[in-house]
Amino acid sequence: MPQRATLLIPPGLDGTAPVAVLLHGAAADRGTLARMAEAVAETGIPVLNASWAFDVKNPAEAAADAVCAVAYANQHASSWGADPDRVIVMGHSGGGHIVMLSALAPEAFPECATASEAHVWAYIGMAGDPAAAAPGGNARRFFEHDPELLKRMDNFSHVGSNSDLIARFVHGTADFTVPIELTRGFHDTLVAAGYDSELIPVAAADHFDPANPTTDAGLETLNQLQSILATLEP
After folding, report:
1. Structural domains in the chain (count)
2. What are residue 93's phi and psi, to 5 degrees?
């Protein structure tokens, strides 16, 4: 099935703006991030709100969907008035797992024919699940029967790649779907490896709040995006 996506392009771009790729959570669709996509576009950058699907029989295809979405943004950013070297990926829940894979190791997923063209500048996790394949992770059971597949799908195994990656994790302290401690462990690993990574806990926020721009946690997601964009200002 062809991958589907919604593209939002603000007017008047001059080729210097980053572009954002949004990935929804598992068992959801891109409609769940429609409001966040609109809010991100209102910051003045193009947004590709992309779909992905998880197949238990071939789970690497989910990561390949993310890699292909990133590669598509790299390929077309210039025509959208954006900078192809400044792709920001934003993933909610399980989408935070697979877009981190696209940020660290796109070449590990040749199921995407354009994997070699994918490059991520910054990552924002919205209650993301980057440790989903690690011990205790929510999705590890789908990969651990195959050591090679597990290595591909475990973000910890790719730490050290794309060492210039900027990472921000917005996570609610009342998230019982993806406990913040799972994200904290991955963030700590990135910091120890020298990455520019920050974990932003939001008191009392639940699993869905960071992906909803009308909540305090969703506003914090947008604040983190703005702080990343500010690094480009002269």
Report:
1. 1
2. 55, -125
